[in-house]
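Re: the 466-residue chain
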Amino acid sequence: MSRFVQMLLTFLGLFAILSCATLPSRPGQFQLKSYQEVQLDNGLPVLLIEDKSLPYFSLGLMIKSGEADDPAGQSGVASLVGDLLNKGTTSRSAEQISDSLAQIGADFSVSVGTDYTMISASSLSFHAEGLLRDFAEILTEPTFTQSEVNRSRQRRLANLQRVVDQPSSFAHRAFQQLLYGEEHPYGPPSGGRLEEVRQMRRAQIIRYYLTHYRPNNAHLAVVGNFEKNQVIETLNSLLAGWEARDRAPLEYGEFPVIEGRSLILVNKSDLQQTQILIGHRGIRRDDPDFLALRVANTVLGGAFSSRLMDEIREARGLTYSVSSSTTSGRDFGLFSIRTATRHDRAGETLQVALDVLDKFVKEGVTETEVRDAKALLTGLFPRAIETPERLAENLLVLRYHGISDSYLKNYIRDLNRLRHQDINRAIRKHFDPDNLKIVLLTNRDQVKDQLGAFENIQVRRFEEFR
């Protein structure tokens, strides 16, 4: 990366960030757009970010439960609750709710993640009161009618069937299940297992909703052009009947131990390419090395110009794309390397990826690599807070993980303080190239003779991961 590109990325980052932050006198620290925090009468915490620059109004509610909270044998129930939330209430049908939102030009969406669920709605500020009424009704009075449950379940089953024909997505499902195992809450695939979704009942969906959709398990953000006192008064009135309920904390259990380099070959004979995934346990989001590992991963495979791309794509032409990632959550995330290649180059590609990882951990990163990675991350940072809504969502996520807002305020300063020695210490601590789980989604007959370096190869049928 040239010095000019580094300077340009930094300039663009600082320019974009000014919409939601200002530069104080202390270099490397940002003053975030002002916000307030209050608590409703029912205990729901509310984050308020006023922005009078445009006539818009938005709501973002985090439910602090997600797919990891699916009961055993009921994978997919959290996703179905999200799908069904706006499909009818005690007083209006799904069509009536949709028409009401359309009349005020409102958007409504639900995103169910592993750890938490985000419910979002927005409209022009002129329609704030109407949006608040619709939002509160959808949140607190869903009926989950049998007809809507049947329809949503069929859509979900169709989507899960299609995943089988998407090799990259299907390989990731298998990889996640194989690393976390059957007992860990992160083990079931996103959206649920095919047979468990097929057997899902309305009573299970209602039970999940009643357990997790509670004000003591939620955090609301209100953003845009509004009057604070009026909004709080309206919310207290609309949500007065939404009551707290005790909920047992989620038990994560132990992350399965990985000993040596274990290779699992998931056989699917009609594939045109081999999907390769390599990885092991990652870190929790609140790990002190979170930022150092972001820099490390950027060097290894988190950017277009990275060691994996340079060696596997540019130098050898083995693949079009290869990347690495370090995910994190309330519990341990995953470190992974993923790529796809021709069947006849699968063994070579796998070995080169392992060699790159070995060298990365053994020799560490250079000062130049760290400087370039920090320049890239500095330029990308403004996306996290470029709008008040993005800022609000990030503040909610920080609160979910118990992380101070100083992570955002001091991000550039803390990033720049990291030395390449700090990055190498984090690499040696958190990357373990000797103990890996390797998953190949492939045609077994076309690759088996290329894997002589592995003594114990486990072959699994792809149907096991649907």
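Residues 384 and 390 are 6 Å apart (CA to CA).
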